[in-house]
Amino acid sequence: DLPPEEQGPSIKNLDFWPKLITLIVSIIEEDKNSYTPVLNQFPQELSVGKISAEVMWNLFSQDMKYAMEEHEKHRLCKSADYMNLHFKVKWLYNEYVRDLPACKGSIPEYPVWFEQFVTQWLDENEEVSLEFLHGALERDKKDGFQQTSEHALFSCSVVDVFTQLNQSFEIIKKLECPDPNVVAHYMR
Length: 188
Prior knowledge:
Mean pLDDT: 88
Order of helices and strands: HHHHHH
Helix content: 55-70%
Largest sheet: none
Strand content: under 5%
Distance between the termini: 44 Å
Number of helices: 6
């Protein structure tokens, strides 16, 4: 068994990917800060940081896409872990890749890699919300909830359920998914 810092990607967890993203960022930053100023002394502008970001993203994309396809077959990790990784990949893309000439104006592929996991997360949240709702309604019946006004038809616990359902929507908004087809699937 290898120590955790020497382990590669695994079907059992997602620990490798945030570490790889951190490494990619440090390489891009080093290239941008160390090499670009030296090489820009010459007539043509050469942004090693941008070249580095493009190459790194292309290689990372291939590996991440295949890894997520494998993960989709086995589903051994929690949906929340996939959501966290999705946010990290989105950050990497927005911070270092989105404005590159090769990517400007095109829809990135990364939301598609996570679509099944986000859908799973939404389904799980919906299920939990429905369980809360049923529990709240049963409690209202059992406790004989008295309507205090024409607007208060249920106890606050039912209101809390709708708040939780809205939180799922808020998380989807925070993903800022650039692919309208994927967003349409989430909003089903």
